[in-house]
């Protein structure tokens, strides 16, 4: 088949439609960026923080949203675009340090996570102040412009005292290094800012809300179809299909992606090569029920 028949696929990916089924399914499973207005706005905000002139009391950001609604995808996209290490006058520059928050509000564990991001040796038995010294020096010697801490809601598992202590560490790093910090987590993460009024005043909040069934959602669904290597157009932006996708996904971005991808894989395996209304209805089990998806039983 000529690629001219695959105009329903973005030109960058049309050649994928010629590949064997196994490779097309692997392509669907592989991570791929689908941009949309809110995500691009958040990336622009983070780029602004990254390039902010150093000053006392640097601006910071807390990015929140429901689980599986695109937060980590956005920060990974930002890291991929702007986080490439390079050298200037034979000095290593690491523009972005991105870590996952430790599972508890532990000062030492936070330092260790940062040190591991730098791929530096350390002794877990070292005192917190020694690890802190190592962290600060690593930031200074590599000219880091921004620190991103994902899954920050994990630190809510500590006591109120531990939460205040970990936020004081974050405030210290920001003040000492004159470096903006981005925290990322579920809506519960807002609570950690309220351990001290000073913390709340230091962070702007950006929320990724669930999608509404509107023109933007229709555009999003159309964008997903553009990267599916199916041999026939599925016309997912048709009203019935959009409404079904929204009803099953409840407007959660991760669930939208999983639903469409699963339907696309079924279309390849069945030989239909398009996503039909019936195939979308057949995935209604993916709709969360009391927080869980029942796929069997």
From TrEMBL:
Signal peptide: none annotated. Pfam families: TniB. Transmembrane segments: none annotated. It comes from the Bacteria. PANTHER family: GENERAL SECRETION PATHWAY PROTEIN A-RELATED, PHOSPHORIBULOKINASE _ URIDINE KINASE FAMILY. This is Transposase. The lineage of its organism: Bacteria, Pseudomonadati, Pseudomonadota, Gammaproteobacteria, Vibrionales.
């Amino acid at each position: 088949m000529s690629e001219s028949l695959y105009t329903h696929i973005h030109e960058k990916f049309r050649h994928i439609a010629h590949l064997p089924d196994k490779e097309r399914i692997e392509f669907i499973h592989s991570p791929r960026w689908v941009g949309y207005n809110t995500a691009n706005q958040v990336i622009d905000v983070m780029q602004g923080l990254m390039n902010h002139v150093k000053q006392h009391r640097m601006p910071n950001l807390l990015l929140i949203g429901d689980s599986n609604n695109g937060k980590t995808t956005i920060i990974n996209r930002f890291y991929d675009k702007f986080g490439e290490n390079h050298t200037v006058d034979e000095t290593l520059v690491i523009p972005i340090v991105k870590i996952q928050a430790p599972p508890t509000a532990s000062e030492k564990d936070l330092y260790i996570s940062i040190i591991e991001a730098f791929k530096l040796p350390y002794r877990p038995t070292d005192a917190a102040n020694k690890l802190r010294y190592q962290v600060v020096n690593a930031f200074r010697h590599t000219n880091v412009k921004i620190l991103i801490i994902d899954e920050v809601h994990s630190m809510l598992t500590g006591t109120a005292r531990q939460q205040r202590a970990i936020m004081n560490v974050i405030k210290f790093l920001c003040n000492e290094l004159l470096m903006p910090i981005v925290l990322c987590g579920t809506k519960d993460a807002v609570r950690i800012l309220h351990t001290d009024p000073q913390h709340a005043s230091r962070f702007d909040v950006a929320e990724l809300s669930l999608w509404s069934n509107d023109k933007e959602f229709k555009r999003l669904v159309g964008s997903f179809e553009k990267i599916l290597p199916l041999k026939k157009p599925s016309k997912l932006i048709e009203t019935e299909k959009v409404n079904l996708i929204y009803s099953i996904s409840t407007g959660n971005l991760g669930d939208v992606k999983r639903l469409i991808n699963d339907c696309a894989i079924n279309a390849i395996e069945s030989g239909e090569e398009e996503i039909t209304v019936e195939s979308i209805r057949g995935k209604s089990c993916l709709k969360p029920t009391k927080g869980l998806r029942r796929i069997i039983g």
